[in-house]
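TA notes, week 10

Several of you asked for a full example with nothing omitted. So below is the full record: C-alpha cells for the whole chain, then the designed sequence directly under it. When grading your own attempts, check the secondary structure regions first.
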C-alpha cells in the first residue's frame, strides 16, 4: 500500500513522498532517498524547512523514529542542518555531480536515532538491548488497578493491619500450586511453597538451610552472577562446573565434593542450552547417591517460541532432592519482586524449625492482588499475550541479524526466553564490540561476567536482550550494530 504526502505546505513546492509499506526497502530508506533526490534536484529549495518529524510521521502513518532516522541520515551527510527552535533546514548543494545519481542504500551509513527536545535540539536516542527489562505496555496496568481498587474496598482490607501467613498467603500458594502442576508438572502441597521478594531472597534462605549440609555448592559455569555472589556471601565454597552443548558437565560434577548444585535446566542462563531428559535423570541419580540437593531455577520457562514448555526437573524427582524456584519477574513485572520456591519435604521440616518466626517478605496487598489475578484466569491469558508479543520480537531480532550479518555471527540460545548470545566473527573482543556499539548509540552487554573461568573462545560474544524494545528499535539497533562492527 503506497501513501502520498505533499511537501508544498512546508517547503513551498509541490512534490510528493510515496511510501510503499510492502516494499523490501525499509521505510526510513524510502523517505531518505526521496528527500535526498528532491534536495539534490532543487525541487526542495535551499533554506526550506522540512516538516517536523511529528507531522511527517503522522501524515505518512509511520513511527516518528522512522522519520527521525531518515532526517538524521540526511543531517549526517550534510543535506540538511538542525538549529534550535527551527527544526531541519535544507542546505544548498552547489555541485552538479550528485544529480547523476539515483537513490542509494543507507544501510552501511545509518547513524544512531535522534529525538528532538522541546527546544528543537536533537540528541542521541540510545537503544539498549538490556536483559531482564520488560515493555511497560505488556503489563496489564488497567486490570491490575481495578483489582487493587476492589481489594481496597473489600472487607479483606482488615488483613493489611496484621502480620499474616509467614510462608505467604495460603490462597496465593494454592493458585501457584495449581499453576505449577498444570504448566510444569510440579507436584507439591501448598505448605511446601515459600513466597519470597525476589530470587536473591530465595537463594539466601536456601543458603541458610544448606549450611549444615555442605560447604561446597556447584554452579553452572557460566551462570547468573547474582546467584553465585549470594552463595559466596553466605560463606560457601563455589565449585564452577562447565556447561557443555547439552548442559552441565555431569562428569566434572561427580568428581567434586559439592552436596548441592544450582542449575537452569530448561533454558540455561546465559547460554540458552536445554538439559536433555537423560541428563536430568542422571543428575537426580547423582543427587540421590550423594545425599545432595538440586536447586532448579525455572526462571523463564513459560517463554518458549517454537515448542511447548519443557517439563520441570522436579516433575521427574521421586527422591525428594529437587528444590524448585521460579519468579514472576520474567513474564509479568520485575518491579513487583515476587518469587517463590518449592521445598522438598526434608528441607521443609528444617525450614519450619529454623524460620517459623520469619514473616513473608512480600507485602500482603501485592500477594492478594496476584491471587485475584490468577484466580480469575487473567494470569494464563497474560502469559499467552506476552509469549506472543515476545515471540514477535524474538523472530524480528533473529531474522534481522540473519539478514544483515549472515555467517559473520553465530546466534546462541534462540527460540526461548528474553535474550540471545551473539558470537561475532570480526576479530573484535567483547570489550571492543561493546565499545563500538556504544559509539553508535547502542547498548549490548558482556557475557564474560557470568563466567567463573573465562575461556578464550568466549571473548567475542555479547548478550542481546529484547524484552523491552519495540520491533522498530530492534531493527534499527541491529542496523546500527552492523555499521559499527562491519
Amino acid at each position: 500500500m503506497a501513501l502520498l504526502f505533499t511537501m508544498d505546505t512546508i517547503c513551498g513546492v509541490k512534490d510528493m513522498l510515496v511510501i510503499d509499506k510492502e516494499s523490501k526497502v525499509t521505510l526510513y530508506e524510502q523517505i531518505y532517498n526521496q528527500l535526498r533526490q528532491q534536495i539534490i534536484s532543487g525541487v526542495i529549495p535551499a533554506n526550506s524547512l522540512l516538516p517536523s518529524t511529528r507531522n511527517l510521521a503522522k501524515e505518512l502513518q509511520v513511527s516518528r523514529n522512522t522519520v527521525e532516522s531518515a532526517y538524521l541520515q540526511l543531517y549526517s551527510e550534510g543535506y540538511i542542518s538542525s538549529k534550535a527552535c527551527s527544526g531541519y533546514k535544507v542546505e544548498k548543494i552547489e555541485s552538479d555531480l550528485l544529480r547523476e545519481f539515483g537513490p542509494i542504500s543507507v544501510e552501511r551509513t545509518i547513524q544512531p536515532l535522534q529525538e528532538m527536545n522541546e527546544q528543537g535540539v536533537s540528541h542521541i536516542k540510545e537503544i539498549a538491548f538490556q536483559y531482564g527489562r520488560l515493555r511497560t505496555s505488556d503489563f496489564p496496568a488497567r486490570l491490575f488497578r481495578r483489582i487493587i481498587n476492589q481489594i481496597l474496598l473489600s472487607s479483606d482490607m482488615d488483613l493489611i493491619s496484621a502480620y499474616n501467613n509467614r510462608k505467604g498467603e495460603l490462597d496465593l500458594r494454592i493458585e501457584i500450586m495449581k499453576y505449577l502442576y498444570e504448566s510444569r508438572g510440579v507436584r507439591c502441597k501448598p505448605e511446601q511453597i515459600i513466597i519470597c521478594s525476589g530470587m536473591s531472597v530465595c537463594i539466601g534462605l536456601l543458603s541458610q538451610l544448606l549450611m549444615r549440609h555442605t560447604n561446597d555448592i556447584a554452579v553452572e559455569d557460566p551462570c547468573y552472577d547474582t546467584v553465585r555472589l549470594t552463595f559466596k556471601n553466605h560463606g560457601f565454597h563455589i565449585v564452577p562446573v562447565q556447561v557443555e552443548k547439552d548442559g552441565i558437565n555431569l562428569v566434572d560434577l561427580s568428581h567434586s565434593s559439592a552436596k548441592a548444585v544450582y542449575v537452569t535446566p530448561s533454558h540455561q542462563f546465559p547460554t540458552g542450552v536445554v538439559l536433555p531428559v537423560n541428563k536430568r535423570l542422571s543428575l537426580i541419580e547423582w543427587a540421590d547417591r550423594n545425599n545432595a540437593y538440586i536447586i532448579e531455577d525455572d526462571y523463564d520457562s513459560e517463554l518458549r517460541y517454537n515448542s511447548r514448555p519443557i517439563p520441570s526437573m522436579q516433575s521427574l524427582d521421586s527422591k525428594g532432592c529437587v528444590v524448585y524456584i521460579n519468579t514472576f519477574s520474567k513474564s509479568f513485572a520485575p518491579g513487583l519482586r515476587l518469587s517463590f520456591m518449592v521445598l522438598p519435604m526434608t528441607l521443609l521440616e528444617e525450614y519450619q524449625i529454623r524460620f517459623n518466626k520469619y514473616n513473608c517478605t512480600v507485602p500482603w496487598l501485592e500477594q492478594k492482588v496476584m491471587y485475584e489475578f490468577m484466580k480469575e484466569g487473567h494470569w494464563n491469558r497474560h502469559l499467552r499475550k506476552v509469549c506472543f508479543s515476545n515471540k514477535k520480537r524474538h523472530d524480528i531480532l533473529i531474522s534481522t541479524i540473519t539478514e544483515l550479518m549472515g555467517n559473520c555471527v553465530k546466534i546462541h540460545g534462540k527460540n526461548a526466553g528474553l535474550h540471545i548470545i551473539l558470537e561475532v566473527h570480526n576479530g573484535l573482543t567483547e570489550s571492543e564490540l561493546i565499545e563500538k556499539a556504544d559509539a553508535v548509540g547502542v547498548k549490548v552487554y558482556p557475557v564474560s561476567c557470568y563466567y567463573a573461568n573465562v575461556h578464550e573462545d568466549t571473548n567475542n560474544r555479547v548478550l542481546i536482550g529484547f524484552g523491552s524494545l519495540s520491533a522498530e528499535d530492534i531493527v534499527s539497533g541491529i542496523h546500527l550494530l552492523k555499521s559499527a562492527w562491519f
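The first strand starts at residue 2 and ends at 6. Use that as a sanity check on your answer.
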